[in-house]
Design goal:
The protein has 193 residues and is an all-alpha fold. The protein has helices at 2-21, 28-35, 39-45, 49-72, 78-99, 103-109, 111-138, 147-166, 171-176, 178-187. The protein has a single domain, classed as Tetracycline Repressor, domain 2 (Orthogonal Bundle), CATH 1.10.357. The protein has 10 helices and no strands.
Amino acid sequence: MRTSKTREMLVDVARSLFAEIGFNNTTMNDIATVSKKGRRTLYTYFKNKEEIYVAVIEKELTSLLQKLRTVADRDINPERKLIEYIFTRLDAIKELIARNGSLRSDFFNNLMEVEKARRKIDIEEQKIIKEILQEGIDKNIFYVESIDITVMMIQFALRGVEVPYVKDNIREKLRKNRENIIKFLLRGLKRPE
């Protein structure tokens, strides 16, 4: 238990330093000094700064996943649940990056590291989306020919919107056109018969 608390504390210190002065300006020595732990302790848990960065991203994404799980567990109509899921996800990612100050620019500069950290989270997110869709299918609200392909397409679409949403290029447009987006997502492109 003590070991994991030390690791968590090191991750929190690193996140704060990355947010305050940036990933590139933070050294392993800075993390050791601010955490009041020796460099030896730091290197016991992490091989290098990049590994700590991935741990920071994983912790942030785990927090995001908890928010998404809360939405998925709500006792509401699956249609409403899917929409809340989408907007909760986008807002949570924006909040995550904004909260982390200069980590925001590092997020965009280190997309490969972020992608590595996201892989485990992506699998969990796919399970959550699948549960929402399956609930909608079971309640005869959704018609989905291939649930796995639909989950994949929803996830890809959300990821494609993340960067412009975070940079505020489309956030207000999405908010103002929420009902049209809902109609598009839930009813697709086909004209009703």
